[in-house]
């Protein structure tokens, strides 16, 4: 975070770090044959085999540039009776190790955005996994320093909402997960202005946090909109063309999507109001400064 104030700006000693803002990366999405029954020995009709098919595409790569080295790789963990596979900035899958013909396997989450806390990349958020009752599966992955890249553990703190730890050598530096150095100069200056106004009481903490969220969205680090769906079923086409729901599950899914869109629109509207108030305060402050300089 900013430390020294010079002419209304805050200078940070680690400005010389390489900027690693959001970059577009072509992603490979999960789509593989499900190994059901007999420990996945391939018995059955390959033409009708089950597949893990996501409903949305993964977001673009973002965050510390060193983590770009993880793109295209996957890391596995066998824990209890499940095998997990984590493909950074792509997806997270789960496979049940069982002789049952209908052993579970599915997608726990698709890469979405960063959870940012206190100027730090606190965790990776993967959402829009397989349906689980009235919600979709999701997983939050925290990164910790380690000698190599290893998926350490997976837990399920609440129903169908998972948590995991991943160790990597790329976060061992003290500043490896700081957000500010990874922003471009324009966004750093915007953050400096925002922090100045908050420090002198020109905006509330709520307004400050809303301003930060807007900066993170501009940088491609935070969630901005509903992810683009992957059209894989005729049910979606029928709904769009004729307004007909093919089944109750499709109806419930569309209803949930509408609720999510309304909620996000309300949040964006609230943030916009806060930013308008912030702009008014800044204009008033600049006007007062100009009057003072003339005096």
UniProtKB/TrEMBL annotation:
Coiled-coil stretches noted in the UniProt entry, renumbered to this chain: 248-275
Domain MRH residues, every copy: 72-174
InterPro entries named in the record: DMAP1-bd (IPR010506), Gtb1-like (IPR039794), Man6P_isomerase_rcpt-bd_dom_sf (IPR009011), MRH_dom (IPR044865), OS9-like_dom (IPR012913)
Keyword annotations of the record: Coiled coil, Disulfide bond, Membrane, Signal, Transmembrane, Transmembrane helix
GO CC, any one term: Golgi apparatus
Parts of the chain that traverse the membrane: 6-25
Keyword Membrane recorded: yes
SUPFAM superfamilies: Mannose 6-phosphate receptor domain (SSF50911)
Domain DMAP1-binding: 179-288
Organism field: Nephila pilipes
Protein name listed in UniProt: N-acetylglucosamine-1-phosphotransferase subunit gamma
């Amino acid at each position: 975070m900013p430390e020294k104030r010079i002419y209304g700006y805050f200078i940070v000693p680690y400005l010389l770090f390489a900027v690693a803002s959001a970059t577009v990366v072509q992603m490979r999405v999960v789509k593989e044959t499900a190994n059901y029954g007999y420990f996945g020995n391939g018995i059955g009709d390959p033409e009708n085999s089950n597949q893990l098919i996501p409903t949305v595409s993964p977001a673009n790569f973002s965050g510390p540039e060193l983590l770009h080295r993880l793109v295209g790789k996957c890391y596995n963990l066998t824990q209890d009776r499940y095998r997990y596979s984590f493909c950074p900035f792509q997806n997270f899958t789960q496979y049940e190790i069982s002789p049952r013909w209908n052993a579970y396997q599915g997608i726990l989450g698709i890469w979405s955005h960063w959870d940012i806390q206190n100027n730090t990349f606190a965790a990776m958020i993967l959402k829009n996994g397989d349906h689980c009752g009235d919600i979709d599966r999701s997983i939050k992955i925290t990164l910790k320093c380690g000698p190599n890249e290893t998926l350490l553990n997976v837990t399920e703190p609440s129903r169908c909402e998972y948590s995991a730890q991943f160790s990597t050598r790329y976060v061992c530096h003290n500043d490896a997960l700081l957000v500010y150095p990874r922003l471009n100069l324009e966004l750093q200056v915007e953050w400096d202005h925002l922090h100045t106004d908050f420090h002198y009481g020109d905006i509330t903490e709520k307004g400050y946090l809303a301003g930060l969220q807007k900066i993170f969205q501009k940088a491609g680090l935070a969630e901005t909109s509903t992810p683009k769906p992957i059209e894989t079923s005729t049910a979606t086409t029928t709904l769009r063309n004729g307004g007909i729901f093919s089944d109750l599950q499709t109806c419930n899914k569309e209803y949930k999507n509408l609720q999510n869109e309304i909620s996000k629109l309300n949040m964006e509207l609230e943030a916009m109001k806060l930013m308008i108030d912030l702009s008014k305060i800044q204009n008033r402050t600049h006007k007062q400064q100009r009057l003072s300089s003339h005096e």
